[in-house]
C-alpha cells in the first residue's frame, strides 16, 4: 500500500502532466509560427543566397556589418524613428484630449464617442485608400480646401517634405478609435467616490483632469504607448498603399525596407532582408524594455 509521501508525489506528477497536456497545443503553435520563423530568419541572416533566394554559403556577420556601414540603412532607421514619434505621441495624446473633452456633460456625447471610435472599424487598406483620395494632388479634399483660402496645391504624397507626415497622419487616424476605446474604458473604471470627493474639495475642469483623471489613467496610457510603438515600428500596409516607400525613400521604414530587399522588384536578397528583420526585432525589444523600465516605474510610483 503506497505511503502518504508517495501518494503526494504521484499527485503532483499527475498535476504537472495535466498542465503540460493543456499547454502542449499552445507550445506547438508557438514553435511553428514564432520559434521556427525566428530561427530561420537568424539562419538566413548569416548566409548569402543565390538568385532564387536559397542560402548558398555562410558569411557570418557580413550582412550586419554592411548594414551598419550603409548610409541608406542609417537613413531608414532615422525615418523609422521619426515615423514612430509622429504616430505614437499625437495618437496617444490626441486620444487623451478627446476622451477628457467627452467627459464633459454635453448633448450628443454618446454619438460623439461612437464617431471617434469609428476608425477602429476600418482596415488598414480601406483607411489608406480613403486618405489617398484626401491627399490626391489634383482632386483631393485637402488641396480643395487650400484652394479656397488662396493657397497652392501641396504634394502630400509626392513631396518628400510632406510624405512622411501624411502617412503618419493616416496612421494616427487609424489608431484613434482603439486609443479612445481603451482610455474611455479606463475612465469608466475610475471609482466614482474618488471623483466625487475631488469635486467636493473644489476640483473641477482642468484641475480635476490633471490631479485625478490623468494619474488614474496611467496604466492605460502606458499600455497604449507600448502597443502604439510596436505597431508603428511594424507598419507596412499604409506605407505600401500611399507611397511605396517614396518619394526618394522619405517614407521607407525598416519594415518596408525588409519587404523591398526580400520581395519587391523581383528581389530575393533574403540574407540582407533577414538581417534587417533581426535588427527590427532588436529595436522593438529595446524600445519596449526602455518603456517598461522608465514609464512603468513612473506609473507605479505615481
UniProtKB/TrEMBL annotation:
Q: InterPro entries under this entry?
A: ABC_transporter_permease, MetI-like, MetI-like_sf
Q: Name one GO biological process term.
A: transmembrane transport
Q: Which Pfam families match?
A: BPD_transp_1 (PF00528)
Keyword Transport attached: yes
Q: Does the keyword Transmembrane apply?
A: yes
Q: What is its main location?
A: membrane
Q: Where is the ABC transmembrane type-1 domain?
A: 73-291
Q: Where is it localised?
A: Cell membrane
Q: Which UniProt keywords apply?
A: Cell membrane, Membrane, Transmembrane, Transmembrane helix, Transport
In the bilayer, the protein is annotated as:
Multi-pass membrane protein
A single Gene Ontology CC annotation of this entry is: plasma membrane
Q: Where are the transmembrane segments?
A: 18-38, 77-102, 114-135, 162-190, 211-233, 273-295
Tell me the Gene3D superfamilies matching this sequence: MetI-like
| Protein family | Belongs to the binding-protein-dependent transport system permease family.
Q: Which PANTHER family match?
A: ABC TRANSPORTER PERMEASE PROTEIN, INNER MEMBRANE ABC TRANSPORTER PERMEASE PROTEIN YCJO
* Protein name, as recorded: Glycerol-3-phosphate ABC transporter permease
Organism annotation: Kitasatospora aureofaciens (Streptomyces aureofaciens)
Amino acid at each position: 500500500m503506497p505511503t502518504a509521501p508517495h501518494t503526494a508525489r504521484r499527485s503532483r506528477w499527475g498535476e504537472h502532466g495535466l498542465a503540460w497536456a493543456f499547454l502542449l497545443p499552445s507550445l506547438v503553435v508557438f514553435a511553428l509560427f514564432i520559434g521556427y520563423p525566428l530561427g530561420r530568419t537568424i539562419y538566413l541572416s548569416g548566409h548569402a543566397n543565390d538568385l532564387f533566394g536559397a542560402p548558398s554559403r555562410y558569411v557570418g556577420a557580413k550582412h550586419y556589418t554592411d548594414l551598419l556601414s550603409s548610409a541608406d540603412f542609417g537613413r531608414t532607421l532615422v525615418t523609422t524613428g521619426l515615423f514612430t514619434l509622429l504616430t505614437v505621441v499625437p495618437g496617444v495624446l490626441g486620444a487623451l484630449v478627446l476622451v477628457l473633452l467627452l467627459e464633459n456633460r454635453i448633448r450628443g456625447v454618446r454619438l460623439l464617442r461612437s464617431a471617434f471610435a469609428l476608425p477602429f472599424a476600418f482596415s488598414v487598406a480601406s483607411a489608406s485608400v480613403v486618405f489617398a483620395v484626401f491627399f490626391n494632388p489634383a482632386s483631393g479634399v485637402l488641396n480643395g480646401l487650400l484652394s479656397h483660402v488662396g493657397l497652392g496645391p501641396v504634394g502630400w504624397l509626392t513631396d518628400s517634405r510632406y510624405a512622411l507626415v501624411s502617412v503618419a497622419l493616416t496612421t494616427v487616424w487609424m489608431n484613434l478609435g482603439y486609443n479612445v476605446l481603451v482610455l474611455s474604458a479606463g475612465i469608466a473604471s475610475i471609482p466614482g467616490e474618488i471623483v466625487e470627493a475631488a469635486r467636493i474639495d473644489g476640483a473641477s475642469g482642468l484641475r480635476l483632469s490633471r490631479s485625478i483623471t490623468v494619474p488614474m489613467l496611467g496604466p492605460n496610457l502606458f499600455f497604449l504607448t507600448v502597443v502604439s510603438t510596436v505597431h508603428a515600428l511594424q507598419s507596412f500596409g499604409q506605407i505600401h498603399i500611399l507611397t511605396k516607400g517614396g518619394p526618394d525613400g522619405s517614407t521607407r521604414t525598416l519594415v518596408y525596407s525588409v519587404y523591398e530587399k526580400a520581395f519587391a522588384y523581383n528581389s530575393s536578397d533574403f540574407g540582407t532582408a533577414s538581417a534587417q528583420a533581426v535588427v527590427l526585432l532588436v529595436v522593438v525589444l529595446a524600445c519596449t524594455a526602455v518603456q517598461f523600465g522608465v514609464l512603468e516605474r513612473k506609473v507605479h510610483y505615481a
